Amino acid sequence: MICPICKNTFLLSQKSAPVTGSAEDLQTARNLEDTLRAHASECIGMAANMIGVRKRIIIVGLGPAAIVMLNPVIESGAGEYEASEGCLSLTGSRTVRRFRQITVSWQDTAMRQQKRQFSGLPAQIIQHECDHLEGILV
Questions:
Q1: DSSP state of 17
Q2: CA distance 14 to 106
Q3: How far is Cα 75 from Cα 41, in angstroms, rounded to an integer?
Q4: Of 12, 14, 129, 131, nearest to 68 (Cα)?
Q5: What is the DSSP letter of 20?
Q6: Is residue 24 flagged as an active site residue?
Q7: Among 19, 47, 79, 116, which residue carries the largest CB count within 10 Å?
Q8: Cβ-based neighbour number of residue 132 at 10 Å
Q9: Count of C-beta atoms within a 10 Å radius of residue 105
Q10: Please, what sign has the CA dihedral across residues 17, 18, 22, 26?
């Protein structure tokens, strides 16, 4: 289901709760994927709070594919730089510090543990979406 984009800064500034793999959590992940696909021309990543759900779920568009990450944790980062980022939930853009390369662990939608390194734009997107999970408005 395509969901409306949340612009409520009070909700967006709250930390998200861990995902347990419940049917409700998995439906949120599917809704997030549908919503990202509907906004593909203007967005390449989303966090669940962007559709009004305070759960630790993000999705990252990687060309025609997308990765859904449940309970993502950025374990390490290297190559810090400054970037300007916008967000569907907020007006304008902001300057942020990011890492060029990160190592992330997460659970997939079957709750299997995953771990992978990302660099460049995918790493930046993951960092932005993980900020959302922490209630950091970027």
A1: B
A2: 20
A3: 30
A4: 129
A5: -
A6: no
A7: 47
A8: 24
A9: 14
A10: positive
Q: Which of 6, 7, 64, 10 is nearest to 32 (CA)?
A: 6
Q: Give the tens place of pLDDT for each residue, 82-137.
A: 999 999 999 889 999 999 999 999 999 999 999 999 999 999 999 999 999 999 98
Query: Given the structure tokens 């449940």, which residue do they identify?
Result: 70
CATH number of 9-133: 3.90.45.10
Find where tokens 């962007």 sit: 50
Contact between 48 and 81 (Cβ < 8 Å): no
Q: Which long-range contacts (CB under 8 A, 24 or more apart) does 119-124 make?
A: 121/44, 122/60, 122/62, 123/77, 123/98, 123/99, 124/83, 124/85, 124/98
Question: Nearest 5°: CA angle at 49, between 45 and 54?
Answer: 135
- Locate the domains of the chain by residue range: 9-133
Does this model's pTM top 0.85?
yes
